[in-house]
Input
Amino acid sequence: MSRKRFNNDFKMEAIRLITELNRSVPSVANDIGVHPNTIYKWIEQYHKDPNTPFVGSGNLKPEEKELRDAKRKISDFEEEIAIFKKANHHLHQTTEIKYAFMKAHRFEFRVVKMAKVLRVSRSGYYAWFKRPKSKYKQANDKLLVEIKRVYEASRKTYGSPRVTKQLQLDGITCGKNRVSKIMKNNHIYSITHRKFKATTSSNHRYPVAENLLNQQFETTCPNKIWLSDITYIPTEEGWLYLTCIKDVYDKKIVGWSMDKHMTKELVMNALNMEIMRRNSSFGLIHHSDRGVQYASYDYQRLLKTNGIICSMSRSGNPYDNAPMESFFSILKKELIHHKQYKTRDQAKHDIFDYIETFYNSNRLNSAIGNKTPNQCEKQRLSA
Output
Protein backbone atom coordinates (compact mmCIF):
# COMPACT_ATOMS: atom_id res chain seq x y z
CA MET A 1 0.00 0.00 0.00
CA SER A 2 1.50 3.34 -1.06
CA ARG A 3 2.00 6.06 1.54
CA LYS A 4 -0.41 8.99 1.41
CA ARG A 5 1.04 12.23 0.11
CA PHE A 6 -0.27 15.73 0.73
CA ASN A 7 0.57 18.97 -1.00
CA ASN A 8 1.62 22.16 0.75
CA ASP A 9 -1.84 23.76 0.57
CA PHE A 10 -3.40 20.75 2.29
CA LYS A 11 -0.80 20.85 5.06
CA MET A 12 -1.18 24.61 5.58
CA GLU A 13 -4.97 24.36 5.81
CA ALA A 14 -4.68 21.58 8.37
CA ILE A 15 -2.29 23.71 10.45
CA ARG A 16 -4.64 26.71 10.18
CA LEU A 17 -7.48 24.69 11.75
CA ILE A 18 -5.26 24.23 14.81
CA THR A 19 -3.42 27.54 15.10
CA GLU A 20 -6.24 29.90 14.09
CA LEU A 21 -9.45 28.03 14.95
CA ASN A 22 -8.06 26.48 18.17
CA ARG A 23 -9.03 22.94 17.24
CA SER A 24 -7.15 20.04 18.81
CA VAL A 25 -4.66 17.99 16.84
CA PRO A 26 -6.47 14.66 17.46
CA SER A 27 -9.75 16.19 16.30
CA VAL A 28 -8.27 17.53 13.06
CA ALA A 29 -6.32 14.32 12.46
CA ASN A 30 -9.50 12.27 12.78
CA ASP A 31 -11.42 14.53 10.39
CA ILE A 32 -8.84 14.59 7.59
CA GLY A 33 -7.64 10.99 7.99
CA VAL A 34 -4.06 11.71 9.04
CA HIS A 35 -2.14 10.33 12.00
CA PRO A 36 -1.77 12.95 14.81
CA ASN A 37 2.03 12.51 14.82
CA THR A 38 2.11 13.54 11.18
CA ILE A 39 0.30 16.78 11.97
CA TYR A 40 2.61 17.45 14.92
CA LYS A 41 5.51 17.09 12.47
CA TRP A 42 3.86 19.55 10.06
CA ILE A 43 3.39 22.05 12.88
CA GLU A 44 7.04 21.69 13.89
CA GLN A 45 8.15 22.23 10.30
CA TYR A 46 5.89 25.26 10.03
CA HIS A 47 7.26 26.92 13.19
CA LYS A 48 10.79 26.13 12.08
CA ASP A 49 10.38 28.00 8.80
CA PRO A 50 6.96 29.68 8.27
CA ASN A 51 7.99 31.03 4.86
CA THR A 52 8.99 27.70 3.28
CA PRO A 53 8.02 24.98 5.74
CA PHE A 54 7.68 22.12 3.27
CA VAL A 55 10.62 22.42 0.89
CA GLY A 56 10.71 18.78 -0.24
CA SER A 57 13.69 16.65 -1.12
CA GLY A 58 14.55 18.21 -4.49
CA ASN A 59 18.07 19.35 -5.19
CA LEU A 60 18.76 23.04 -4.56
CA LYS A 61 21.34 25.20 -6.18
CA PRO A 62 24.18 26.24 -3.82
CA GLU A 63 22.96 29.84 -3.66
CA GLU A 64 19.37 28.66 -3.00
CA LYS A 65 20.56 26.35 -0.21
CA GLU A 66 22.63 29.16 1.29
CA LEU A 67 19.65 31.53 1.20
CA ARG A 68 17.35 28.91 2.75
CA ASP A 69 19.86 28.18 5.52
CA ALA A 70 20.23 31.90 6.24
CA LYS A 71 16.46 32.29 6.48
CA ARG A 72 16.26 29.36 8.87
CA LYS A 73 18.96 30.83 11.10
CA ILE A 74 17.16 34.17 11.20
CA SER A 75 13.86 32.40 11.90
CA ASP A 76 15.48 30.37 14.70
CA PHE A 77 16.96 33.50 16.25
CA GLU A 78 13.65 35.39 16.06
CA GLU A 79 11.84 32.45 17.67
CA GLU A 80 14.32 32.31 20.52
CA ILE A 81 13.96 36.05 21.12
CA ALA A 82 10.15 35.71 21.16
CA ILE A 83 10.39 32.83 23.64
CA PHE A 84 12.77 34.81 25.84
CA LYS A 85 10.39 37.79 25.95
CA LYS A 86 7.36 35.68 26.79
CA ALA A 87 9.16 33.41 29.25
CA ASN A 88 11.18 36.14 30.96
CA HIS A 89 9.43 35.62 34.32
CA HIS A 90 10.02 31.86 34.15
CA LEU A 91 13.79 31.84 33.60
CA HIS A 92 14.57 31.56 37.32
CA GLN A 93 11.53 29.49 38.29
CA THR A 94 11.42 25.79 39.13
CA THR A 95 11.77 23.18 36.39
CA GLU A 96 8.11 22.20 36.76
CA ILE A 97 6.98 25.79 36.14
CA LYS A 98 9.19 25.92 33.05
CA TYR A 99 7.65 22.69 31.81
CA ALA A 100 4.18 24.15 32.38
CA PHE A 101 5.14 27.15 30.25
CA MET A 102 6.37 24.84 27.49
CA LYS A 103 3.13 22.89 27.57
CA ALA A 104 1.02 26.06 27.38
CA HIS A 105 2.99 27.34 24.36
CA ARG A 106 3.79 24.09 22.55
CA PHE A 107 1.70 25.08 19.53
CA GLU A 108 3.27 28.53 19.38
CA PHE A 109 6.95 27.60 19.71
CA ARG A 110 9.00 24.51 19.06
CA VAL A 111 9.76 22.40 22.13
CA VAL A 112 13.43 22.17 21.18
CA LYS A 113 13.75 25.97 21.16
CA MET A 114 11.83 26.47 24.40
CA ALA A 115 14.02 23.86 26.08
CA LYS A 116 17.12 25.69 24.87
CA VAL A 117 15.98 29.13 26.11
CA LEU A 118 14.69 27.80 29.44
CA ARG A 119 17.73 25.52 29.88
CA VAL A 120 15.84 22.29 30.47
CA SER A 121 16.01 18.97 28.67
CA ARG A 122 13.46 17.89 26.09
CA SER A 123 13.44 14.34 27.44
CA GLY A 124 12.65 15.66 30.91
CA TYR A 125 9.82 17.77 29.51
CA TYR A 126 8.27 14.85 27.61
CA ALA A 127 8.56 12.62 30.68
CA TRP A 128 6.82 15.30 32.75
CA PHE A 129 4.19 15.81 30.05
CA LYS A 130 3.21 12.13 30.06
CA ARG A 131 3.34 11.78 33.83
CA PRO A 132 -0.13 11.95 35.49
CA LYS A 133 -0.70 14.83 37.90
CA SER A 134 -0.23 14.06 41.56
CA LYS A 135 -3.16 14.47 43.93
CA TYR A 136 -1.39 17.48 45.47
CA LYS A 137 -0.99 19.11 42.04
CA GLN A 138 -4.64 18.43 41.21
CA ALA A 139 -5.67 19.99 44.53
CA ASN A 140 -3.49 23.05 43.82
CA ASP A 141 -5.07 23.44 40.37
CA LYS A 142 -8.52 23.45 41.97
CA LEU A 143 -7.35 25.92 44.60
CA LEU A 144 -5.91 28.16 41.87
CA VAL A 145 -9.38 28.44 40.31
CA GLU A 146 -10.79 29.60 43.65
CA ILE A 147 -7.88 32.00 44.20
CA LYS A 148 -8.52 33.62 40.81
CA ARG A 149 -12.23 33.91 41.64
CA VAL A 150 -11.54 35.76 44.90
CA TYR A 151 -8.80 37.87 43.30
CA GLU A 152 -11.03 39.01 40.44
CA ALA A 153 -13.94 39.67 42.83
CA SER A 154 -11.63 41.93 44.85
CA ARG A 155 -10.92 43.92 41.68
CA LYS A 156 -7.39 42.54 41.79
CA THR A 157 -6.71 44.39 45.05
CA TYR A 158 -6.30 41.42 47.42
CA GLY A 159 -2.88 40.04 48.25
CA SER A 160 -2.40 36.52 49.60
CA PRO A 161 -3.45 37.30 53.22
CA ARG A 162 -6.89 38.62 52.25
CA VAL A 163 -7.34 35.97 49.55
CA THR A 164 -6.59 33.30 52.16
CA LYS A 165 -9.05 34.78 54.63
CA GLN A 166 -11.82 35.05 52.04
CA LEU A 167 -11.27 31.44 50.93
CA GLN A 168 -11.51 30.32 54.55
CA LEU A 169 -14.71 32.31 54.98
CA ASP A 170 -16.03 30.51 51.89
CA GLY A 171 -15.38 27.18 53.58
CA ILE A 172 -12.22 26.29 51.64
CA THR A 173 -9.40 24.80 53.71
CA CYS A 174 -6.07 26.43 52.88
CA GLY A 175 -3.07 28.02 54.52
CA LYS A 176 -1.58 31.42 53.82
CA ASN A 177 1.81 30.01 52.78
CA ARG A 178 0.22 27.66 50.26
CA VAL A 179 -1.96 30.43 48.81
CA SER A 180 1.00 32.79 48.68
CA LYS A 181 3.12 30.24 46.79
CA ILE A 182 0.38 29.47 44.26
CA MET A 183 -0.24 33.18 43.64
CA LYS A 184 3.48 33.86 43.22
CA ASN A 185 3.95 30.94 40.81
CA ASN A 186 1.06 32.21 38.71
CA HIS A 187 2.08 35.89 38.88
CA ILE A 188 -1.05 36.97 40.74
CA TYR A 189 -0.27 40.13 42.68
CA SER A 190 -2.28 42.86 44.34
CA ILE A 191 -2.25 45.98 42.22
CA THR A 192 -0.21 48.75 43.90
CA HIS A 193 0.70 52.32 43.13
CA ARG A 194 2.31 55.29 44.72
CA LYS A 195 0.84 56.74 47.87
CA PHE A 196 -1.40 59.77 47.58
CA LYS A 197 -1.14 62.95 49.62
CA ALA A 198 -4.31 65.00 49.97
CA THR A 199 -4.20 68.69 50.84
CA THR A 200 -6.53 71.45 51.99
CA SER A 201 -5.84 75.08 52.77
CA SER A 202 -5.44 75.99 56.44
CA ASN A 203 -4.41 79.54 55.63
CA HIS A 204 -7.46 81.38 57.02
CA ARG A 205 -8.63 83.43 60.00
CA TYR A 206 -11.35 81.14 61.28
CA PRO A 207 -10.97 79.69 64.79
CA VAL A 208 -9.54 76.19 64.96
CA ALA A 209 -10.46 73.45 67.44
CA GLU A 210 -8.14 71.50 69.72
CA ASN A 211 -6.95 68.01 68.84
CA LEU A 212 -9.09 65.83 71.12
CA LEU A 213 -7.92 62.48 69.73
CA ASN A 214 -4.13 62.78 69.83
CA GLN A 215 -3.90 59.86 67.37
CA GLN A 216 -6.02 57.58 69.57
CA PHE A 217 -8.32 56.07 66.96
CA GLU A 218 -10.19 53.54 69.07
CA THR A 219 -13.76 53.35 70.30
CA THR A 220 -16.05 50.63 71.62
CA CYS A 221 -19.20 51.59 69.72
CA PRO A 222 -20.26 53.41 66.55
CA ASN A 223 -21.13 57.09 66.26
CA LYS A 224 -18.51 58.13 68.78
CA ILE A 225 -15.69 59.28 66.48
CA TRP A 226 -16.08 60.42 62.88
CA LEU A 227 -13.10 61.32 60.71
CA SER A 228 -13.27 63.50 57.61
CA ASP A 229 -10.93 64.77 54.93
CA ILE A 230 -10.87 66.04 51.33
CA THR A 231 -8.95 64.67 48.36
CA TYR A 232 -8.99 65.27 44.63
CA ILE A 233 -9.18 63.12 41.50
CA PRO A 234 -7.79 64.18 38.11
CA THR A 235 -10.03 64.13 35.03
CA GLU A 236 -9.68 65.63 31.56
CA GLU A 237 -12.31 68.19 32.59
CA GLY A 238 -10.29 69.22 35.63
CA TRP A 239 -10.18 68.22 39.31
CA LEU A 240 -13.02 66.37 41.01
CA TYR A 241 -13.01 66.97 44.77
CA LEU A 242 -14.12 64.21 47.12
CA THR A 243 -14.78 64.44 50.83
CA CYS A 244 -15.59 61.42 53.00
CA ILE A 245 -16.61 60.77 56.58
CA LYS A 246 -15.49 57.54 58.23
CA ASP A 247 -16.73 55.95 61.43
CA VAL A 248 -13.72 54.83 63.46
CA TYR A 249 -15.62 51.90 65.01
CA ASP A 250 -16.60 49.84 61.93
CA LYS A 251 -14.47 51.71 59.34
CA LYS A 252 -17.54 52.41 57.23
CA ILE A 253 -17.67 55.40 54.89
CA VAL A 254 -21.09 56.73 55.80
CA GLY A 255 -20.86 60.21 54.36
CA TRP A 256 -19.36 61.46 51.13
CA SER A 257 -19.75 64.26 48.62
CA MET A 258 -18.18 65.12 45.23
CA ASP A 259 -18.01 68.38 43.31
CA LYS A 260 -15.81 70.34 40.92
CA HIS A 261 -15.25 73.04 43.58
CA MET A 262 -13.71 72.58 47.03
CA THR A 263 -16.18 74.62 49.05
CA LYS A 264 -17.81 74.49 52.47
CA GLU A 265 -20.93 73.07 50.75
CA LEU A 266 -18.84 70.06 49.72
CA VAL A 267 -18.10 69.06 53.30
CA MET A 268 -21.54 70.09 54.57
CA ASN A 269 -23.24 67.76 52.06
CA ALA A 270 -21.13 64.84 53.29
CA LEU A 271 -21.95 65.67 56.93
CA ASN A 272 -25.66 65.87 56.17
CA MET A 273 -25.50 62.47 54.47
CA GLU A 274 -23.79 61.06 57.54
CA ILE A 275 -26.42 62.51 59.88
CA MET A 276 -29.25 61.13 57.71
CA ARG A 277 -27.75 57.63 57.59
CA ARG A 278 -26.75 57.49 61.24
CA ASN A 279 -28.25 59.59 63.97
CA SER A 280 -25.38 61.30 65.74
CA SER A 281 -25.15 60.65 69.46
CA PHE A 282 -24.55 63.43 71.97
CA GLY A 283 -20.86 64.03 72.51
CA LEU A 284 -19.79 62.52 69.19
CA ILE A 285 -16.35 63.78 68.09
CA HIS A 286 -15.86 64.93 64.51
CA HIS A 287 -12.17 65.10 63.58
CA SER A 288 -10.68 66.76 60.50
CA ASP A 289 -7.75 68.90 59.45
CA ARG A 290 -7.76 72.70 59.80
CA GLY A 291 -8.99 73.36 56.27
CA VAL A 292 -11.05 76.48 55.65
CA GLN A 293 -14.07 74.37 54.70
CA TYR A 294 -14.16 72.63 58.09
CA ALA A 295 -13.38 75.80 60.05
CA SER A 296 -16.07 77.87 58.29
CA TYR A 297 -18.85 79.31 60.46
CA ASP A 298 -21.57 77.43 58.54
CA TYR A 299 -19.90 74.07 59.01
CA GLN A 300 -19.23 74.69 62.69
CA ARG A 301 -22.85 75.73 63.13
CA LEU A 302 -24.02 72.47 61.53
CA LEU A 303 -21.84 70.49 63.94
CA LYS A 304 -23.11 72.38 66.99
CA THR A 305 -26.75 72.06 65.91
CA ASN A 306 -26.39 68.28 65.91
CA GLY A 307 -24.52 68.10 69.21
CA ILE A 308 -21.22 67.15 67.58
CA ILE A 309 -17.90 68.16 69.12
CA CYS A 310 -15.22 69.43 66.76
CA SER A 311 -11.61 68.21 66.85
CA MET A 312 -8.84 69.24 64.46
CA SER A 313 -5.36 67.94 63.61
CA ARG A 314 -2.26 69.87 64.41
CA SER A 315 -0.92 71.97 61.58
CA GLY A 316 1.00 69.96 58.98
CA ASN A 317 0.68 66.60 60.77
CA PRO A 318 -1.04 63.97 58.56
CA TYR A 319 -0.67 61.30 61.27
CA ASP A 320 -3.31 63.11 63.33
CA ASN A 321 -5.89 61.90 60.79
CA ALA A 322 -4.10 58.73 59.68
CA PRO A 323 -7.14 56.40 59.21
CA MET A 324 -8.80 58.89 56.87
CA GLU A 325 -5.55 59.41 54.95
CA SER A 326 -5.25 55.61 54.77
CA PHE A 327 -8.66 55.27 53.13
CA PHE A 328 -7.79 57.79 50.43
CA SER A 329 -4.49 55.97 49.85
CA ILE A 330 -6.38 52.69 49.38
CA LEU A 331 -8.89 54.36 47.07
CA LYS A 332 -6.05 55.71 44.94
CA LYS A 333 -4.06 52.48 44.84
CA GLU A 334 -7.01 50.22 44.12
CA LEU A 335 -9.02 52.42 41.77
CA ILE A 336 -7.97 55.91 40.72
CA HIS A 337 -4.38 55.22 39.64
CA HIS A 338 -5.64 52.58 37.22
CA LYS A 339 -8.07 54.92 35.46
CA GLN A 340 -7.94 57.89 33.12
CA TYR A 341 -11.22 59.76 33.41
CA LYS A 342 -12.45 61.91 30.55
CA THR A 343 -15.23 63.49 32.61
CA ARG A 344 -16.00 64.16 36.25
CA ASP A 345 -19.22 62.14 35.91
CA GLN A 346 -17.22 59.04 34.96
CA ALA A 347 -15.09 59.45 38.05
CA LYS A 348 -18.18 60.00 40.22
CA HIS A 349 -19.79 56.77 39.00
CA ASP A 350 -16.62 54.76 39.69
CA ILE A 351 -16.07 56.27 43.14
CA PHE A 352 -19.68 55.68 44.18
CA ASP A 353 -19.40 52.07 43.01
CA TYR A 354 -16.12 51.59 44.87
CA ILE A 355 -17.34 53.06 48.17
CA GLU A 356 -20.85 51.65 48.34
CA THR A 357 -20.65 48.29 46.53
CA PHE A 358 -17.05 47.29 47.20
CA TYR A 359 -15.35 49.02 50.14
CA ASN A 360 -18.36 49.08 52.48
CA SER A 361 -19.96 45.86 51.26
CA ASN A 362 -17.32 43.40 50.04
CA ARG A 363 -13.78 44.42 50.94
CA LEU A 364 -12.44 42.57 53.97
CA ASN A 365 -10.90 44.83 56.62
CA SER A 366 -8.32 43.26 58.93
CA ALA A 367 -8.85 46.01 61.53
CA ILE A 368 -12.38 44.69 62.23
CA GLY A 369 -11.62 40.98 62.21
CA ASN A 370 -11.54 40.48 58.43
CA LYS A 371 -15.16 41.49 58.03
CA THR A 372 -16.62 44.17 55.81
CA PRO A 373 -17.91 47.41 57.37
CA ASN A 374 -21.48 46.47 56.46
CA GLN A 375 -21.09 43.04 58.07
CA CYS A 376 -19.77 44.68 61.21
CA GLU A 377 -22.73 47.07 61.24
CA LYS A 378 -25.30 44.29 60.71
CA GLN A 379 -23.82 42.18 63.50
CA ARG A 380 -24.04 45.13 65.85
CA LEU A 381 -27.66 45.87 64.93
CA SER A 382 -28.73 42.23 65.30
CA ALA A 383 -27.00 41.78 68.66
Remarks:
- The CA atoms of residues 29 and 36 lie 5 Å apart.
